[in-house]
Amino acid sequence: MQRVDVSCIQTNRVSPHAFIVASILLFLIFYTSNSAAKQYTHNKARLYELHNVQEAVLAKDFNLPDVNGNSHMLSSYKGRVVVINFWATWCIPCRKEMPALENAWQQLKSHDVVFLAIAMNDEAASIKRFLEKTAVTFPIPLDGDGQVANQWRVTGIPVTFILDKAGRIIYRETGVREWDSAQIVDKIVALGAE
Predict the structure, then answer these.
(1) Mean pLDDT over all residues of the chain?
(2) Which of 25, 49, 81, 89 has the fewest beta carbons under 10 Å from its own?
């Protein structure tokens, strides 16, 4: 008969120190997973929200050419709601949200809403290559030196401004949004109805 060495078998007793450590670990696992779930839910909800700026101010005028050579002067759009997105082809989140902007534009152009995607610190050739792969039908003005972005105090992209018919900034959103969601489209339509 074979002999079994039982000197390494532990009893079912748990030391108080091990119990405390295990309890703390379980608490931390629960707390962090719960916090992560709340943060995920908050971030996801944020994709469908627009927040009013504290004080609506008149947007600074600009005159920029687009990739086709057409000129876009902001003041010429007074009387219409204007959605201005600052982006660049080298910005991955910017590229990812462009189809949602296009879908929103398709829904809103019949409401006399203007969309402008201002390409800052970018080159026309890069934008044209991007447009060959991504269907965007609204104008893309070029802010190659970033001067307009500086005047508008753009510090990170993507950032989107929504102007009322008087040319005042009503919404300013930093980061990606689901622009074609019903919640956002309805808010823009309501802004145009005011």
Answers:
(1) 83
(2) 25
